[in-house]
Prior knowledge:
Blueprint: H1 4-18, E1 22-26, H2 38-49, E2 60-63, H3 78-85, E3 88-93, H4 99-116, E4 124-131, H5 133-136, H6 139-143, H7 152-166, E5 176-180, H8 182-185, H9 191-196, E6 199-203, H10 219-233, E7 238-243, H11 260-274, E8 280-282, E9 371-372, E10 438-439, H12 470-480
Parallel strand pairs: 1-2, 1-8, 2-3, 3-4, 4-5, 5-6, 6-7
Antiparallel strand pairs: 9-10
Helix pairs in contact: 2-3, 4-7
Amino acid sequence: MPSSSTLLTLATAISAVNAAYQGFNYGSTFTNGAPKAQTDFEAEFKTAAGLDGTDGAFTSARLYTMIQGGTPNSPISAIPAAINTKTSLLFGLWASGGDAAFANEIAALKATISQYCGKLDGLVAGISIGSEDLYRITPTGVASNAGPGAQPGTLVNYINQVRDTIKGSCLSDVPIGHVDTWNAWVLDSNKPVVDAVDWLGMDTYPYYENTNANSISNAKSLYEAALQKIQNAGPGKEVWVTETGWPVNGVSSGAAIASTANARSYWEQVGCPNFGKTNVWWYTLQDAAPDAPNPSFGLIGSTLTETPLFDLSCKNVDTNPGNPASSSAASSKPATSSSAAASSTKSSTSSDAQSTSSDSQTTTTDSSSQSTTTAVPPPVSTSSGEQQTTTSEAQTTGSSGSQTSSSEQQPTGGAPVTSAPATTLSTSVPFPSSNVTVTTGTGGSPTGPGSSATASSTNVPGSNGNKLSSFGAAAAAIAVAAFAL
């Protein structure tokens, strides 16, 4: 009969395998465009892990780029920072800057494998190729000036490049995915991307769905609707929550009011039921360093502190809702190695991809255009035959609003990043982008959420914390991505 100590060890191992990744989005620059150094990332990661009321659960970081700000293609310093702090990473390669910019992302990935493979065991949750690139080329993304995106064929090519790069390395079993909004995932024209990845990343912000009833009381319903659409678009594929959150202050968006009370309510409705069960990277820890965006999604202000703006405890919250968004339940945190995280269930989805004609929302608040100081936006290679032809996609907020987050900005070889406004149909409310100041239209490199960008999937790695909108985040990343080639 097994001893009690053996049973305890086994139970601990099972718990570790079943645990999901839980963390925040991090840009490669601060809101003023200054690149983050290793010490900056370490300070942010330690703050996240020490947040009051969270029991040290936020130990994962989603990145928007592999490139260190201020360099052409050196590995981002968030990697050694994560190794030192035992922080798991969702790698990101910016994909909307064109082939030359993506070649630099691949170069940084190769250098990462060469320099850090011996130290990354168990720390890599997955690899994301792009962020909201498909959304930005939809009619909604174009109308909201979300910035350059990438065609599905281009993304599939990039995904294959990454698979070839990691083959035979310590990252060979790490699951590969793409991050986008629901109204991009449901398009038939994007099915090749669904088929090419192991998991689907969801950027969604009910706050920006201002063409729907989007008060905080309806936020959970909008979140779940977005999740269901993505699940239907990729049957059998895990869905990872790569960006979601509610602003603590700033302008209103439809019936959605930005406040710490509502941010806490959204945390209880959406965050608590999914933390520990689904892979979640919340938007965001901090988006106001040194400058605060409007709206601001940061759980803390402009100074790093373990004291959040509202209670983050989930102890008195019902964490077993009737319809939990555990679409990524299958993707559990690897207990001992990065390969354990791999979920190579690449089940091909048939024509289940829903067309967004009937459920296409158009969020006017998301349409703030991002402005970037970077001047060199590499052209995105797109083939006319690949162009999406969706007319009813015009939903820009909701589950994946058109925010552009600075964190998504691609690292540009030293190019300054300014936080870009959210990309939405209307310019009334900029989407948050994670720490990035970017101008839409550059398509350059992501800098990712840093200290202050608008919350949105458009965060370019290296950028600070502004997240314009879930849709906009990707746009911001692009705008920020002016690589120094």
